[in-house]
């Protein structure tokens, strides 16, 4: 499989996570009860699967390969992607902090959670679109075949390291389960 294809497949799963998060935020705004365990699961998916694993593959492996192919890390499209990853991390921290306050009984913190969630999903929809349509195309054009083979190998070691053995596939299943519970059709 082309290494960018693997990242595009992960994007599909991330898009589902964003839709679930939007649905949960809507339920919060409408004053409905929220399943705390599902929120905990979703936060883990965002931190481990989306950030450490997917963004890890991009930052530590793909962007480094692009740099060695002459595409600078600072400025340009890679610089923008790095900046957006950092913003995403801030929103995930914001959601996590609000969630901890909710667990301590502060129901008002749900609003802070929903505000961070909405900023996060808006950022990530646009981010994924740019990567699928611009950055990954650049990678396919600029990276040599041996580099692509090395990329695929490095991706697989990183995902085992960041998610734990066998857990990578489990994340896809967890996302599908949440999708079945929260999204219709
Ligand atoms: Fe990214
Ligand atoms: Fe990405």
UniProtKB/TrEMBL annotation:
Signal peptide: none
Gene Ontology CC: plasma membrane
Superkingdom, taxonomy of origin: Bacteria
Residues annotated as domain Hemerythrin-like: 3-139
Xref: InterPro entries: Hemerythrin-like
Protein name: Hemerythrin-like domain-containing protein
Organism: Desulfosporosinus acidiphilus (strain DSM 22704 / JCM 16185 / SJ4)
């Amino acid at each position: 499989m082309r290494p960018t294809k693997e990242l595009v497949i992960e994007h599909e799963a991330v898009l589902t996570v964003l839709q679930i998060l939007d649905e949960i935020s809507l339920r919060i705004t409408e004053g409905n009860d929220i399943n705390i365990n599902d929120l905990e699961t979703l936060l883990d998916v965002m931190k481990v699967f989306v950030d450490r694993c997917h963004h890890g593959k991009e930052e530590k492996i793909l962007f480094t390969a692009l740099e060695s192919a002459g595409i600078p890390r600072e400025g340009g499209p890679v610089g923008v992607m790095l900046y957006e990853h950092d913003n995403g991390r801030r929103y995930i921290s914001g959601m996590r902090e609000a969630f901890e306050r909710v667990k301590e009984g502060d129901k008002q913190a749900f609003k802070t959670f929903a505000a961070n969630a909405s900023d996060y999903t808006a950022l990530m929809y646009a981010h994924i679109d740019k990567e699928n349509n611009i950055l990954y195309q650049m990678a396919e054009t600029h990276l040599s075949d041996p580099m692509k083979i090395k990329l695929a190998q490095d991706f697989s070691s990183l995902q085992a390291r960041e998610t734990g053995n066998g857990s990578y596939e489990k994340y896809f299943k967890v996302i599908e389960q949440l999708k079945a519970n929260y999204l219709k059709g």
